[in-house]
Amino acid sequence: MASNKTAGIDAVELLKKQHREVEDLFEQFDKLGDSAKDKKKKLADQICNALTMHTMIEEEIFYPATRAAGGEEEETEDMVDEAVVEHASAKDLIAQIQDMSPDDDLYDAKVKVLSEMIDHHVEEEEKEMFPKTRKLKLDMQILGEEMKARQLEIEAAQ
Question: Helix or strand or coil: residue 102?
Answer without folding.
Answer: coil
